[in-house]
Fold these 3 entries.
Entry 1:
Amino acid sequence: MKTFFYKISFLLIICIVLTLFFIFPNKGFTLDQNIIPDDQSLSFKGVTEPVNEAILSSSVDGTIKEILVKEGDWVQKGDPVIRLYRREQEMEVTLRFKIWKSKAALNAAQTEEKNLQELYKSSKQLYEKNHSVSKEELTRLKVRSEQSHFKRMELEIREEQERIQYELAKEQLSKRILYAPFQGIVTHIFLQAGERSKSNQQLIKLVNPKVCYFKCNAEERFAYTLKPGNKVTLYIQAGKKDIKKTGEVIFVSPVVDPASGLMKIKVIFENKDQLIRPGISGKMILPRQ
């Protein structure tokens, strides 16, 4: 009786395993290197990621005055997303501009140089004509004219330095506003208005899911013929179904990992409808050679 019971139990277990195998053929029953062949094609599993994804930070320290976006907002390239307090920097810009534009000293030096040059020229003519001007006086006028020339040049150099200081002040002021480097969705805000931000501290995470990468690894013998520019078929998971996408190969590793025997493949595809959430897995289908 016990032997009969064991046989029945064994048969039931076999039936359950076979049923699970046919219902869930891809759960735990994959071939080596995630390659699932059929009669005409091969499948390579991989993951997706956005082409443009960045964590934004400010290059200067400061207190956050205003956060201009919220999580979930779509922003365009160049849109301001965070403002730091910048009253001090605005005053510095105003001061540097006034100093740069104050040309009283330079104008006076230019006038003095012009007058001395004319005086020296006329005195030289008188000296050469009838010596009505002494040589000592002519020499003194020449020295004064040369000195006025160098003074004017010095003031012009100083004016250029003042212009550069004004431009630097404007640059520091512009750093008090953080701009979006590309269009995308704000997915995370790390600090709030009123909090102190240090340079290079994480402030906002920005992602553009409309163009994505698919990355996978494949055995060299199957992916040998792939080249950048080739079109491939992708099946990317979206909820409970897979969405078919056509992608373009943009990178095929020129080397094979000696430990695994695999080579890296990178495919770009459009996701304008945003049905696919970057980070999800998918498959690349290649025809059998």
Entry 2:
Amino acid sequence: MRIVIWFLVILVAVIGVLAFVALYPPARDKALVAMSHAAAYPYEEDVREISYGPLARHRLDYYPANPAELDQKRPIILFYYGGAWRAGEKAFYHFVGTRLAAAGYDVVIPDYRLFPEVQFEGFMEDARLAYGWVSAEMAQAEGREIIVMGHSAGAHIAALMAYGADYRPEEASRPAAFVGLAGPYAFDPKDWPSTKEIFADVPEADLARPVYFVDNQSPPSLMFHGDRDDVVKLWNQEELAAALAQHDVAHESVILPETGHYKILFSFSRPLSAEMGVMAKIDSFIEQYISRVK
């Protein structure tokens, strides 16, 4: 009963925040940050804001792992948030960063430029810069692996980083694993009315479709999708899973019951984390496929 009440409180808060959008965006942003902190998993470390490039949006939040887990040297999680490639702030995802960090992972959540300031090539360049920073400043220095993760549009970006070698810095190795939540991995972004302007600078649609880049060198992949997601359709995950299976890539495709596009993200929140089991599944997947550095 308590979980249901928490979820209803979050839902009402989200609806209220959305009502602010047209009237006063600064109030919306402050409310989203407050809601993110209210839903966050207990976490006692200091979040560090760091520049990863020269532009205003080239900022990332670094969540150090729970000290009790530091000796295990778990992989670094680089999380790209969603927002239809049009909206988003790293501060809105505090509850994601704290949940992953409390599980013992160093977590990085970068901002990146959005449409209409940039199109596809612009935000992918930012994703590349962020990956390069994590690789050079954290992974290579400590002999650790990187896991790319994301939700919705962020899962699309993370999947391109995982499967498309040309999107990563030349000096950086491929990610050790990919974890995606409700990602549009297979759709044609040049065909959909809501995305055709954003992806107008892509010469061919396949170059922006993660499923196109899957091969037998692709990293182990864990995908989650809600059975009630009306924003990104389930067939995107099904097509990606089929491509991974065709190339004998280790993967798991999880369909969450009674879950929509946004509830899947709130699986990292304090009230829903235990019930939905997404964090536990991520932990199990990483334990199975990625060796810890001793």
Entry 3:
Amino acid sequence: MNKFIVLTADITEELALGQKLLKAAPQTMLDLLIRVVICVIVFLIGSRIINLIRKLTSNALKRANASKEAKQFLDSTLKVGLYAFLIFQIAVKLGIDATTIATVLGSATVTIGLAFQGSLKNCIGGILIMLLHPFRVGDYIIEDNHRNEGTVSEITIFYTKLATIDNKIILLPNGALADTSITNVTNEDNRRVELKVGISYQSDIRRAKAVINSLIEANDRIMKDKEYRIFVDDLGDSSVVIGMRFWTKTEDYWPVRWDMLEDIKYAFDENGIGIPFPQMDVHLDELERV
């Protein structure tokens, strides 16, 4: 009899608890819905504030004459940091304890570090690029590991964007750029042009050099205050290779190179200087008949 009474009391207590939870459920759902709505509003307002902060920072850097790559890098870093702070505040608004968030983040640091070690490497590489300035926005670079090349159009916290001459975009991880050698083609104001042209063995070497010299002297984009040289570079199988080296402005490098090659061809034709194609002389000895 006593057991029946105890069992009845337990069932009555559980039913009372269930009724209490059912009565509280609508209020709990309403509170959760209100919190979600508040968080959405906070996110929208926070996003606008973040954009405003980024704009004010960009204007301040512009007035301070900061470099373009510094503005791009700081903007991407600021964006990541501010959005992380906003998400943290939204989590607190949802009722998640800040200490709990900190504990979870601390315990997940190693896992996140292993999972995103490539991203962390790229981030550190971006910082090194900003500090050491191996290249800047607008420079033409060649990444020597995979021979990717182009004009630097943007430097972010994780990637550097290159625009190729045929209008393609290459994204290079900053970590890889920090670990490999880079050729900065446009870092200096002047660049040396080196050309080689083959002439036939029957042609006059002195005349060929005089023709090239006159072309160099007549070209206004070739710097005359720097030494230029015309020389025999090699005695090849089919031609005498005439080499030349001269200096021009970096932005004129390719136009000067292309124009000089064309002008040399026309000038050689006018002066009877042949440019031979590869050839081989074959001599046949007649065998004596036995």
